[in-house]
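User: Can you help me understand a structure? I only have the sequence.
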Amino acid sequence: MNWRKLFTPIANLSSAQARDYMDSHPAGDFQLLDVRQPREYEEGHLSGARLIPIKELPDRLDELNPDQPVIAYCAVGGRSRAAAQLLSGQGFKEVYNLAGGIKAWEGERATGPLAAGLELLPSGAEYEQAAALAYAMEEGLRQFYLRLAEQFPESGLRSTWERLAALEEGHKARLLHEYREQTGHGLPPSREGELLEGGRRPDDVALAALLAAATPQELLGEAMGLETQALDLYLRLASHSEVAASRELFLGLAAEEKQHLALLAAELERH
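Assistant: Let's start by predicting it. Here is the structure, written out as tokens:
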């Protein structure tokens, strides 16, 4: 280890700078590193972040790619600064510290443990299984948005929900086209029921109760929460996938989720 580098300055990114960086780079081209404890991660984390508690980092460096940029974060920035200095000292080429940590983060956060939702796609699953899962999740959210359009026609958001439903339909069409290109088959294998992209089902009772009493702003917030969970799950599924075609499938879907979040954020700002 180059100990001198543990005391050299590390590049900091503000919350706004980190968001701009992540928005302008494909998800697979950089690494988000959460160096907090598992309980902290479960309560709220940045979508797609890899959890390696700082005390475990020296023994788990091989889980990170030294040739890809790393954005490290913790609660307020102290642990992640030390992690960034450690990575720099170990030859990682481009390392950033999220100044102020996740408490300074201005944006949506995903929740739940690192393994949440990964049971939907067993390790080593073939591309066909990945495509079927993605197709079911896209259809689930399409149904959710159509339900919002029908249930709340006076909210001033009907055109937004219909637009998002149409985008999900477009994603399904792209998935089918890609599936045919990859396999030569017409349709991916079906899954029992449909899933919302965050892993819940469209008939979730708690979700229905929440929507029934929601204001337009709360509806937008709930939709952003689902899209954030979807982004997080797609990115974790990409890291989890051992099949290259499946990994690319999930990274492509993650990029589309980022666009949906931007659309919803603009609507929330408008309201």
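Now, to help you interpret it: Residues 244-270 form the longest helix (27 residues). Strands lie at 11-13, 31-34, 50-51, 70-73, 95-98. Let me know which part you'd like to focus on.
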